[in-house]
Amino acid sequence: MSLPISQIVVTSPAKLAFISGQVALNAEGELIGPNDYVAQARQVFMNLKLAIEAAGGSAEHVTQMRIHVVNHRPELANIVFQAGA
User: Fold this and answer.
1) Alpha carbon of 37 to those of 3, 8, 26, 31: distances in Å?
2) pLDDT at res. 47
3) Exposed (0-12), middle (13-18) or buried (19+): which is 70, by Cβ within 10 Å?
4) Of 10-14, 54-58, 67-71, 75-79, where does mean pLDDT reach its minimum?
5) Beta-strand runs (E) in 1-85
6) Whether the predicted pLDDT of 48 surpasses 80
7) How many CB atoms lie within 10 A of CB 37?
8) I need a surface site. Which of 15, 62, 67, 85 has the fewest CB within 10 A?
9) Radius of gyration of the chain from Cα atoms?
10) Helix (H), strand (E) at residue 54
C-alpha cells in the first residue's frame, strides 16, 4: 500500500516551508549515480535547492537540515557535506 506524502509544506500567514523526501532522482524520475554517493548527493542538493526556490526562498533561509544516508559509513560524511557546499 502506498501512502501519500508531501515533500513540501508551506504555512501561512507567515511563510515557513518544511521540505522533506529529497532523493537522487532527476526531473524524469531517473536515479542519478547508481552506487555513486558523490553524484547522488549532488542531485539531492540540487533537488533541495529547487524545492527551496519553488517555495520562494534561497539557501540563506535554511534554518535546520537533517540528512539521512542509506548504508552510511563515516567516510561518506565528507562527500555528502562537500556536495552540499
Assistant:
1) 27, 24, 15, 12
2) 95
3) exposed
4) 10-14
5) 8-10, 17-19
6) yes
7) 19
8) 85
9) 14
10) helix 37-54
Confidence of residue 31 (pLDDT cuts 50, 70, 90): very high
DSSP helix/strand/coil, 18 = strand
Q: What is the mean pLDDT of residues 22-46?
A: 94
How far is the CA of 85 from the CAs of 12, 24, 78, in angstroms? Answer: 30, 17, 10
Which residues fall within 8 angstroms of residue 11, CB to CB, at 6 or more apart?
17
Taking the alpha carbons at both ends of the chain, their separation in whole angstroms is 37
Look at residues 82, 83, 45, 74 and name the one whose alpha carbon lies nearest to residue 62.
45
Distances (CA, A) of 69 to 13, 17, 57, 63: 34, 22, 25, 20
Classify residue 81 by burial, with Cβ atoms within 10 Å: 0-12, 13-18, 19+.
exposed
47-55 average pLDDT score: 94
